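Section 3.1 - Work completed
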Amino acid sequence: MKIFTNRKNSLLCAILLFCACVFSCKKILDPDVIELPTAVNAITMPSDVEKGIAAAYSFLRAVVPDKVFLMGDMRANLFSSYSQSSNVRVETAIATNTAVALLNNDGGNWNQFYTVIAQCNLILEKIPQIKGYDELLRRRHVGEASFIRALTYFYLVRFWGDVPLNLKSVEVENLPRAPQAEVFAQIKADLDVAIANLDLDYGDGERAVRASKGAAWAIKAHLLGWMQDYAGCEKLCDSVITQGPYSLVTDTMNLISIFVGKSKEGIFELNFDANARELQKNRVYNRTLGRPWYKDVSDGGGGSDRYLLCPTRDQINTMFPPGAVDARLFTWFIKETYLQGVNEDRIFFGKYRSLQLKGDTSSQNINESNIIITRLPDIMLLRAEALASNAVGRAGEAAVLLNMVRKRAFAAPYTGGGNIQDTILLERKKELIGEGQYFFDLVRNRKLDKDSKITAGDWYQKGAWLLPINQTIIAKSNFVITQNEFWK
């Protein structure tokens, strides 16, 4: 993506709004979250909207990689420290699902998500006021802003359940948490707008890194699956697979190219490109890679390879039984570390190991791997899950899709036996590890107590899967915002 946030507009926003907001009521969000993207005259022409869209992607890129890896993979107990007594990283405790661990890792803070939403609200408010708009461009901008807002609310509702539903760029009233059903309805409405306005393909240069009709179909399929509407989910997945311009990467020994970005199977991903100044520090990659990728001794760097987050040997063997053929073992993970001795058995996770050429390793702002939100195997396996569900009951077709994903990795085909739904869930774990999916998969399938450290039999009914809300957010709302029941 070669479009950038306009910092001058952001500064203008804060200045213009200061006088209006200084005497306003307390807000549910930190004031900067609302003020930063908002200004009366910040968007007056299509080129301003383009910059505003770029800002929305930038805000999304700032929050999703960290939050989704920690609360989508770490919380699902997929990664851990070298031991539980030495070289223990603070993130490891997330899997224990204690309030202290979650809050210490920013699991109670939704403010950055509302930054994204406020930006999208502003864009959608301003577009109808602009004259001389090329119709195709206008439709694309409406579709993109609607898609980004929908995706952001989808993360919010999956993390916290009932959340404030704000459709204004500036909201000076205290907003209570809206019921999940209302938030789902808004997400669905936004995705339908995106589907109606976006094209399937905008060319290779913007493949997957900007919203498309296929991306909107894919996120709506996930939404319907989350809502247990597997019949609707299956149909949307089928649209992505049969009508979208997507195909599996067939060079099995070069699967890492998927995470360089813009591959043929990419549906939507967050772009990281040094030429566009889109680099980040201390995200998924910095926590999981040691030497020779990071050579400094800062937190998450290569100073001590033991201080990295990696699957344990038992976690690896659960996914890839010893002796079984599966190319993902040596493409998702790094062979050199995998072959070390038992006492130094740190299995580096390597999906995100693409670095800026001659980058500054001391700053760690060097990673150019894209963060995948959804790609074709995700949707193929989601469709398989829907087909195998009791609501749809077409397990034979589900097995075909499952085996297409397995064949690409040279893994043995599924030939029956066992529980096909559990087999598909395990396949999602193997294929999508590190992409922030597995915790959501376990909740959607109501199997969190079967494959995580959240083991209470009534975890779903009690809301143990939801995150706590930071007390500062609750207090700033004058306690209009209430805590999730499980965390009271």
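Second construct:
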Amino acid sequence: MAFEEMWRDLAPVGRSSSSGGYNRQPWASAEIELRAWFTEECARRGLAVETDGIGNQVAWWGAGDDGVLTGSHLDSVLEGGAYDGPLGVVSALAAVDALRERGFEPARPIGIGVFVEEEGSRFGRACLGSRLATGATTWDDAKELRDRDGVFLADAIADAELDPSAGLLPLDRIGTFVELHVEQGRDLVDRDVAVGLASEIWPHGRWRFDFSGQANHAGTTRMEDRRDPMLTYAMTALAANKQARLAGQRATFGRVAVEPNGTNAVPSLVTAWLDARASTDDALTEMVGSIERQADDRAGRDGTSLVVTPESVSGSVAFDPELAARLAGLGDWPVIPTQAGHDAGILSAAGIPTAMVFVRNPTGVSHSPDEHAETADCLAGVAALADVLEELAR
């Protein structure tokens, strides 16, 4: 089936009729529908899908070990875009079609894979499927994670009729991993090229800031008598913005929960999640430490308290430079860094030679309904991925 047809099939799944954004939460209806679609598409190609105990999927073309795995993920952030994740899966299927049309027979098996809960938007742990598969996160640790509604990860997986005791995606068949992804930035736009390869992933992570104070009446409590954690949080958000700007890094408070969340009440607790990214591990540690110190200082003045908990932290990932250079030579593609996390980074950290193919994003907007890639660029990405897979699977 052509790329455009597959893309049309996916377009309605999990899409909000009001905002146009996508809500494809892992182990929920839209994502389950997408995994069923993937199984059907693989069956059309005579490929049997293996699903592990948490929902990671892979289908192999050819037998043997030392395979070349490609693919991405199908889940989305809340109100996300259409391309982040699914573009890599659809492109992988289309690339296999292209190789078969060329009459190519792989000497190394080629796999098409889907990792679950890459975004971490439901259970707060980015790249959870690949982390569990590689052992970067243990099941004993992960099963106690809860979503915003208080549902345990273990229960969500059981409700999806999966069983972690059945085992996780075996890595011993994977000799190389190649992930195609829409670029989440404007590097390729500025270079005026449709396709690029990744050199590295910036270190990044998520930290939970719990600001505690004293609930009180919004009208009767004098301003000087308040212990208001919202003030401490507000100053911390401004401090994070300033520290990131001064250092040329990234810091974002994008999620906040307030208790008791009443219009006429001073809150007792503000919980906010910091997403921070930097060009080096040391720069990330320094920036987050500076933000925390400023928050602590402000808490002392506000009569509040602060607890900071790292929830998901990934160190810098440098992709195999020889592999990147070898593949870049196939199409004279630029090799560029990315500030976004990916399953490719987890597999690379586990010792699997890994590369990433990026497809131009004309606006650079991502994690938003405005995320976009032109069809011509997507098709250029499919052709590039097919060339890469042919090179690696000869």
